[in-house]
Recover the amino acids of this structure.
């Protein structure tokens, strides 16, 4: 079923970048304002879903040759890994920590271990959502 | 800290092995496993001098401190013996397996499981926290399951694996309940703290139930009668696995548990009789049944059962020492425990060697059936030597370490029979008699191993390959063990001073002021009864061996029909049948039925609770007034919900359904919850897409022809669910049953460095929930993927049923 949807394609090309930017923003903003790993991951996943709808799956997979199962697994590894990472510093499992640094360009910035944890969450969400949608839609 | 890492290292190795196996196919992955194991052995052996001086090494990594569950590694004399056996025998077994398994087998799996087991087993013996111990305990069962089913194409392997898993995990579960009882009595998970506190609780109502449950765990794991039936079936595993798990280490976990809990329960009369009685009967039953076996490995399995029973009974006898508290007399009975520890080590050496020998025979000639074997002495002289050393040690003959511990066992049995407490004056005399009779059978089957296999006529036509010595690599490991068997006979006190004595101090912490343990002598003088008991064993045993065809008819008195095996399969079949019947009864395959179950349960459980607690009499006068916007959105959602019922096509229904979701998102915006609104919006979008994707596979939408009756039921259920939900939503604001905890989270900026409280809760305060949710999400994703992608291929089917 080939539909000539030039307008959708053209719009999608731009919109996807806007969505991806939003996803990044939401992910990083999560610490102090609305956002976070889960929602950042979901927005990212929805950007990919939009691509899958607008173009066909083969084209998108050629452009983004990533195995999303591995993305999900890596995300879970990251999240659980930060839990064990805490043990190395002799604090209870999953203890998170934060500190303020003076970075060149960014000024005083807060860096936290939660970010790593949340990155894991985001990757799992992206990986799982895309895996599920791809495997269902490919099963024809 | 290093001790905790030592437990983790095998797990890391297990994770690396599949990678290395895949990337470097030329490299035999066993060499990697052996390096890990040897390094751990050396690391642990370095603690010997320090432990022998009475030190203990302890380190805690906090895991869930709020519940007192911490990963505490604790190394004392008792754990050191076991830990050295695990890594030492482990190294030898891995070395042996490198030559035993052909490179065509899936070695990546094999060594992954083996490393998993090693880590789990180290965890069992080095953990002080009962919860952690339980986790590792079940991990050993699981890795044992995987290893028994290594040749999963064979039906017998799968059955044996399942049997061992069912029995040991059921026992482990009983043990967990026992641990929880102990926790509820003492309020701590730490075994050492329990030992300190336990005297205050010995009259507690849960004390005896906890003891029995913990013993159930120990007896199932250590294959004690009547749970011994899993061990012979576990022999379907590759021989290195049998040598390692099912004779040297895993089956000793139960014995370790008994030793570890002796300071807690020891001195109780029921503990004494349960451990001693079950142990001594297992000793007899195992040795009696070993004689009738024709498969060498099955014979060794029963012999292992019997020897485990012997060690178990000695720990039981030793526990009598705690009956009196601290007296000179009480230390007298601790000799039994000392003998038990000594035999624990001895058994690992000679039984390990014997398993490896049987593996060699099987590997070289292709059969383990003693009716087909014979005359291998001239063709496999080195193997014969190792077999003789192992068997004679097991039979308790001098020049081998088994002799020493067997003599000490007789001493202990005689001593305990003369004790005047625990009603031993009436029943005690049975103990040395059973011990002696069982030793005769032990002697008989030990002779069968040597003489039936290696002497007599050589019948090449019955063998699959002509006999010859194995490659040198296969002989190294049993050789080292055989050397230990002989060596320990001559210098037993080296072992006694450096390993056994410190272990005694950890089993009898209250008696530690006294010199525990005795010097081990081979010669007790002419008038010692032990010597004459051994002489009797040899004479009668030899006669029974020579004339065995005249008395083996006695086994027909125990027909197969009445064995525990039959009972086990009967129970299993019965349960399968019943559960199939029950499940088929309610699993109708109709979606409507399932929804009815779910909603009925919801109505009964939640609605019932609301009625029962009187929560329906709520008061909404304090609620905020409803604004126009809210009213409009609510009305739109209501219209949408009702119009779904009248939708003509599925696409319309899906789209109208999404109006509900977006309506909820709009509510979140109105209530100033941007986080929730964002999440709801995106979740709704993705769900709609998912719906549309699945839409493709669904059949034509057609008007359902539902009978009037079930339609009425549907209406009633729908209305009730709606009512219950509404009542919950309205009533939830009313009852403040608990103190609010939100005040704690308001400090999130200072505690977690984040101004967004919601995310601080998700990622920091309650990160455990989030982490597990993430893992669950991953599992769900993999589940969907495998469901759809990996459909079983037809040609794989016959592969399963060999």
């Amino acid at each position: 079923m080939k539909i000539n949807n030039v307008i959708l394609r053209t719009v999608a090309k731009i919109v996807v970048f806007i969505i991806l930017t939003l996803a990044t923003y939401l992910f990083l903003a999560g610490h102090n304002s609305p956002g976070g790993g889960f929602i950042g991951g979901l927005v990212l996943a929805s950007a990919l879903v939009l691509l899958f709808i607008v173009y066909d799956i083969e084209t998108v997979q050629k452009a983004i040759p990533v195995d999303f199962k591995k993305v999900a697994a890596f995300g879970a590894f990251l999240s659980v890994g930060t839990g064990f990472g805490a043990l190395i510093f002799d604090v209870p499992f999953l203890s998170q920590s934060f500190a303020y640094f003076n970075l060149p360009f960014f000024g005083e910035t807060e860096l936290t271990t939660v970010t790593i944890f949340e990155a894991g969450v985001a990757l799992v969400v992206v990986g799982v959502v895309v895996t599920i949608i791809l495997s269902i839609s490919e099963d024809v | 800290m290093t001790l905790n890492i030592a437990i983790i290292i095998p797990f890391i190795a297990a994770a690396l092995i599949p990678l290395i196996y895949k990337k470097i196919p030329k490299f035999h992955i066993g060499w990697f496993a052996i390096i890990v194991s040897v390094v751990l052995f050396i690391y642990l052996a370095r603690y010997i001098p320090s432990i022998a001086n009475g030190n203990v090494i302890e380190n805690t990594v906090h895991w869930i401190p709020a519940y007192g569950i911490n990963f505490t590694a604790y190394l004392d004399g008792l754990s050191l013996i076991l830990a050295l056996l695990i890594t030492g025998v482990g190294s030898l077994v891995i070395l042996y397996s490198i030559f035993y398994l052909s490179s065509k087998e899936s070695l990546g799996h094999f060594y992954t499981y083996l490393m998993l087991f090693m880590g789990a087993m180290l965890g069992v013996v080095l953990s002080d926290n009962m919860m952690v111990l339980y986790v590792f305990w079940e991990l050993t069962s699981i890795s044992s399951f995987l290893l028994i089913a290594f040749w999963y194409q064979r039906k017998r392997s799968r059955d044996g694996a399942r049997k061992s898993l069912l029995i040991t995990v059921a026992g482990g579960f009983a043990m967990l309940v026992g641990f929880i009882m102990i926790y509820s009595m003492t309020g701590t998970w730490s075994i050492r703290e329990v030992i300190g506190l336990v005297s205050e609780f010995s009259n507690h109502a849960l004390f005896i139930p906890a003891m029995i449950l913990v013993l159930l765990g120990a007896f199932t794991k250590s294959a004690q009668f009547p749970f011994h039936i899993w061990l012979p079936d576990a022999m379907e595993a590759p021989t290195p696995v049998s040598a390692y798990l099912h004779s040297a280490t895993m089956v000793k976990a139960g014995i370790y548990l008994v030793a570890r809990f002796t300071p807690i329960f020891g001195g109780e009369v029921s503990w004494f009789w349960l451990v001693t009685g079950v142990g001594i009967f297992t000793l007899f039953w195992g040795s009696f049944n070993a004689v009738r076996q024709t498969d060498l490995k099955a014979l060794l399995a029963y012999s292992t059962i019997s020897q485990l029973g012997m060690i178990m009974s000695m720990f039981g006898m030793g526990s009598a020492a705690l009956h009196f508290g601290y007296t000179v007399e009480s230390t007298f009975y601790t000799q039994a425990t000392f003998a038990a520890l000594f035999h624990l080590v001895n058994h690992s050496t000679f039984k390990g060697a014997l398993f490896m020998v049987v593996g060699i025979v099987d590997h070289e000639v292709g059969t383990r059936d003693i009716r087909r074997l014979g005359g291998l002495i001239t063709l496999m002289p080195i193997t014969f030597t190792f077999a003789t050393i192992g068997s004679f040690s097991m039979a308790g003959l001098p020049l081998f370490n088994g002799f020493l511990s067997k003599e000490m066992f007789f001493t202990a049995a005689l001593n305990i029979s003369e004790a005047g407490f625990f009603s031993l004056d009436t029943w005690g005399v049975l103990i040395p008699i059973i011990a002696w009779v069982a030793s005769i059978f032990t002697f008989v089957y030990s002779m069968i191993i040597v003489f039936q296999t290696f002497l007599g006529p050589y019948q090449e036509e019955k063998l699959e390959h002509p006999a010859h010595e194995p490659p040198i690599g296969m002989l190294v490991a049993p050789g080292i063990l055989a050397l230990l068997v002989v060596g320990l006979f001559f210098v037993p006190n080296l072992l006694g001073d450096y390993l056994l004595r410190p272990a005694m101090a950890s089993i009898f912490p209250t008696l530690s002021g006294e010199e525990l343990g005795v010097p081990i002598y081979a010669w007790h003088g002419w008038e010692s009864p032990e010597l004459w008991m051994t002489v009797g064993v040899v004479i009668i045993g030899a006669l029974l061996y020579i004339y065995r065809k005249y008395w083996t008819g006695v086994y027909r008195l125990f027909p197969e029909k009445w064995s525990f095996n039959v009972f086990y399969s009967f129970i299993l079949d019965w349960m399968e049948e019943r559960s199939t019947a029950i499940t088929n009864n309610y699993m109708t395959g109709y979606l409507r039925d399932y929804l009815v179950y779910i909603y009925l349960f919801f109505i009964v459980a939640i609605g019932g609770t609301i009625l029962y607690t009187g929560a329906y009499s709520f008061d909404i006068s304090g609620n905020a007034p409803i604004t126009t916007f809210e009213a409009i959105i609510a009305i739109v959602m209501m219209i949408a919900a009702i119009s779904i019922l009248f939708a003509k096509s599925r696409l319309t229904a899906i789209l109208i359904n999404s109006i509900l979701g977006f309506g909820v998102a709009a509510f979140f915006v109105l209530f100033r919850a941007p986080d929730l609104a964002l999440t709801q919006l995106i979740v709704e979008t993705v769900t709609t897409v998912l719906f549309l994707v699945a839409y493709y596979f669904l059949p034509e939408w057609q008007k359902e022809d539902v009978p009037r009756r079930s339609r009425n039921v549907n209406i009633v259920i729908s209305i009730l669910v709606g009512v219950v939900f509404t009542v919950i939503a309205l009533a939830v604001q009313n009852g403040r049953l608990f103190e609010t905890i939100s005040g704690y989270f308001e400090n999130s900026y200072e505690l977690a460095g984040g101004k967004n409280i919601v995310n601080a809760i998700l990622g920091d305060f309650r990160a455990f929930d989030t982490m597990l949710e993430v893992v669950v999400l991953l599992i769900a994703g993999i589940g969907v993927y495998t469901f759809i992608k990996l459909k079983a291929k037809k040609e794989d089917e016959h592969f399963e049923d060999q």
About this structure: Chain B touches chain A through 46 residues (CB under 8 Å). The first helix of chain B runs from residue 2 to 23. Residues 41 and 55 of chain B are 19 Å apart (CA to CA). The beta strands of chain B are 57-64, 69-75.
